Amino acid sequence: MGAGKTTIGRLISQSMDKDFYDLDKVIEDNAGADIPWIFEREGEDGFRKRETQALASVAQSDKGDSVLATGGGIVMREENRDILRENALVVYLYASVAQQLYRTSKSNHRPLLQTGDPKATLKKLFEVRDPLYREVATLVIETDSRHPRSVANKVLDAIKRHLKEETTTS
Ligand SMILES: Nc1ncnc2c1ncn2[C@@H]1O[C@H](COP(=O)(O)OP(=O)(O)O)[C@@H](O)[C@H]1O
Ligand SMILES: O=C(O)C1=C[C@@H](OP(=O)(O)O)[C@@H](O)[C@H](O)C1
Ligand SMILES: [Mg+2]
């Protein structure tokens, strides 16, 4: 949370002239309710079920030609990691816990952080999720000391380099 997935995803989709989806928005549209409401009524489990359904449906309907920003917890389920690996070039936007805390502090739309100690929560989630992101990612991009436009340019360059390497080695 706060790595910049939604912000950077939108920027790179514009630069690449591709459609952009934010999985949280897909979940909200399907549910006709926002994420805090889903967590309140259905708990995290209910949200995760909706998240997997939404990911599977985007992966199935999309021809692999769009940019998808996921929610931060997408790597928690093995099923989701398999879908990502099989259908996408996955970019892990790395942000330190300090940056995550700073960037998420302006919004109260993340139910998991509506606790007395969001820093401790982010730290705990980071310890579990960072290795899972590294396992599933094609590219890892560091975001801490960069503005969104500069992160987006770094992602675009890394994708171009990766695709070029893929064509020269195949
Ligand atoms: N590289 C960055 N540097 C500074 N602020 C950023 C950066 N990336 C995103 N932000 C800001 O942090 C907040 C959270 O970004 P968001 O894209 O919603 O993250 P995520 O979708 O990963 O939770 C937003 O206010 C956004 O403008
Ligand atoms: O990390 C998580 O478990 C979550 C991250 C959120 O998305 P962002 O990572 O875009 O904030 C959203 O999916 C939900 O609040 C749960
Ligand atoms: Mg987001």
TrEMBL record:
Mg(2+) binds at T6. Its main location: cytoplasm. Pfam families: SKI. Binds 1 Mg(2+) ion per subunit. Its EC number is 2.7.1.71. One of its GO terms (molecular function) is ATP binding. Gene3D superfamilies: P-loop containing nucleotide triphosphate hydrolases. It is found in: Cytoplasm. One of its GO terms (biological process) is chorismate biosynthetic process. Coiled coil: none annotated. Substrate binds at D24, R48, G72, R129. ATP binds at G2, A3, G4, K5, T6, T7, R110, R146. InterPro entries: P-loop_NTPase (IPR027417), Shikimate/glucono_kinase (IPR031322), Shikimate_kinase/TSH1 (IPR000623), Shikimate_kinase_CS (IPR023000). Keywords: Amino-acid biosynthesis, Aromatic amino acid biosynthesis, ATP-binding, Cytoplasm, Kinase, Magnesium, Metal-binding, Nucleotide-binding, Transferase. PANTHER family: SHIKIMATE KINASE (PTHR21087), SHIKIMATE KINASE 1, CHLOROPLASTIC (PTHR21087:SF16). Catalyzes the specific phosphorylation of the 3-hydroxyl group of shikimic acid using ATP as a cosubstrate. This is Shikimate kinase.
